[in-house]
Design a protein that fits this description.
There is one protein chain. The longest helix has 43 residues, at 2-44. The model is unreliable at 200-209 (pLDDT under 50). This protein is globular. The protein has 2 domains: 2-85, Helix Hairpins (Orthogonal Bundle), CATH 1.10.287.130; 94-244, Histidine kinase-like ATPase, C-terminal domain (Heat Shock Protein 90, 2-Layer Sandwich). It starts with a helix and ends in a 5-residue tail after the last strand. With 249 residues, the protein is of the alpha+beta class. It contains 7 helices and 7 strands.
């Protein structure tokens, strides 16, 4: 027992070390980008210099703003990760109309998908579906992560969809699908691992940190559901989240 505890402690310490190294590495890119663009902006607006055009100012500020959003996503992901590892993730499980959560995420991300990636986001739901037993806030977090990943993976002119349907008498299926770059067969088994990214250069450039899918998997499992993915390289991906239907009474 002592040997097992020692091995468990060593494994936990190794995991913490890897997390610190990974997070430090991930922070460098957005911090360096913010610093560089703000420095350029300060130099461009220094007294005695020719003021940059409004378009140039917008570009500087827009990039800095996007990098701040990236840092915010990383902080939120790390907080979720820490709460799950320390068993401090408190779920407010109650009946939720999943189609309303889909609509909320649609209204939030649809304009961004169109303006930033030129991707069309659509949603749909089968009629008269029963509510599911979930934490609504966490369901929103799951959806946002899946949809953001899908948008990132889809080239301009592509489509990302959110759909809700009955999977079986006990579950509804929440499906997020895209017609983007897809995932190769040898990578599918790793996509729910922390800091794993199927295309490092692409996800780093578009804001991915490799934590979103790991957190989605843990949140879905914590709520008694399951998640599966179907994908073909070059043809898109389909994530299927099974959520428990609320038991009457």
């Amino acid at each position: 027992m002592a040997a097992q505890e020692r091995a468990r402690a060593e494994q936990a310490e190794q995991g913490r070390h890897e997390l610190i190294v990974n997070v430090s590495h991930e922070l460098r890119t957005p911090v360096a980008s913010i610093s560089g663009h703000l420095e350029s902006l300060l130099m461009a607006t220094k007294e005695g210099t020719t003021a940059p055009s409004p378009a140039a100012l917008y570009d500087y500020l827009n990039i800095a703003h996007q990098e701040v959003e990236r840092l915010g996503i990383l902080v939120d992901d790390l907080l979720s990760l820490a709460r799950m590892e320390s068993d401090e993730l408190h779920l407010n499980m109650r009946p939720v109309v999943a189609s309303e959560a889909i609509e909320e995420v649609y209204q939030t991300l649809m304009p961004l998908a169109k303006s930033q990636r030129q991707v069309t986001l659509v949603r749909g739901s089968a009629p008269n579906l029963p509510p599911v037993l979930v934490d609504r806030q966490r369901l929103i977090q799951i959806l946002q992560n899946l949809v953001r990943n899908a948008i990132t993976s889809t080239p301009a002119g592509g489509i990302v969809s959110m759909n809700l349907e009955q999977a079986d008498p006990q579950h509804l299926a929440l499906i997020v699908e895209d017609n983007g770059v897809g995932i190769s067969a040898d990578e599918l088994e790793h996509i729910f691992e922390r800091f794993y990214r199927t295309d490092t250069s692409r996800t780093r450039a578009s804001g991915g940190f490799g934590l979103g899918l790991a957190i989605v998997h843990d949140l879905v499992t914590a709520m008694g559901g399951s998640i599966n993915v179907e994908s073909t390289k070059g043809m898109g991906s389909r994530f299927i989240v099974l959520l428990r239907i609320t038991t009457p009474g």
